[in-house]
C-alpha cells in the first residue's frame, strides 16, 4: 500500500549568494555566538553537503537530537540556517529539513570593506558567467556538445 503523504521531496536549498558580515555590524555578535561551538560549525558543514532533518544531523554527527535542536535554534536566530522543506517519517510525523541560508559566510573588517567585498564578488560572478557562456558558444560553433 502506498503512502498518501510524500515521505521525502527534493528540498530547494537556501540562497547561493554569499553573506558578508562586517565585524562592526549588529549581526556579527549573533553570528559569532552561534558559531562559537564546534558542534554548531559541524552542523553548518554537514548542511552544506546536503539538507537534512534534525535526526539526520544527529545521526551524522553522532550526537543527540536535543543537542542538534539547541544549536539549530541558535543558528536559525543568527540567520545561518533555515527550514527549506518538510519531510514525513514512516509514521506520518512532519520533520523540518534544514539547509544553509546562504552559499558562504564572508567576514569583512568594517562596513566599507563589506561594500568592497560585495562589489568584488559581483564582478567575479559576472566574469565567471561571461566565460561560461563564451565556452558554450565556442563548443557549439565547433560542433561539440558539452559533457
List keywords for this structure.
single chain; 147 residues; alpha+beta; Arc Repressor Mutant, subunit A; 3-stranded antiparallel sheet; two-stranded parallel sheet; 5 helices; flat; disordered N terminus
How does this structure look, described?
This protein has 147 residues and is of the alpha+beta class. It has a domain at 19-110: Arc Repressor Mutant, subunit A. It has five helices and five strands. The protein has a three-stranded antiparallel beta sheet with strand order 2-4-3. Strand 3 (81-88) and strand 4 form a beta hairpin. Helix 2 (38-49) crosses helix 4 (65-77) and helix 3 (54-61) packs across helix 4. The radius of gyration is 20 Å and the shape is flat. Residues 1-6 have low confidence and may be disordered.
Residue share in helices?
A: 40-55%
Intertermini distance = 40 Å
Based on CA inertia axes, which overall geometry fits? flat
The parts where pLDDT drops under 50 for at least 5 residues are: 1-6
Major sheet summary line = 3 strands, antiparallel
The DSSP helix count reads 5
CATH architecture of the domain at 19-110: Orthogonal Bundle
Strand order across the largest sheet: 2-4-3
Write a brief caption for the model.
By secondary structure, this protein is of the alpha+beta class.
Q: Helix and strand layout, with pairings?
A:
Blueprint: E1 19-22, H1 27-34, H2 38-49, E2 52-53, H3 54-61, H4 65-77, E3 81-88, E4 94-100, E5 105-108, H5 111-141
Parallel strand pairs: 1-5
Antiparallel strand pairs: 2-4, 3-4
Helix pairs in contact: 1-4, 2-4, 3-4
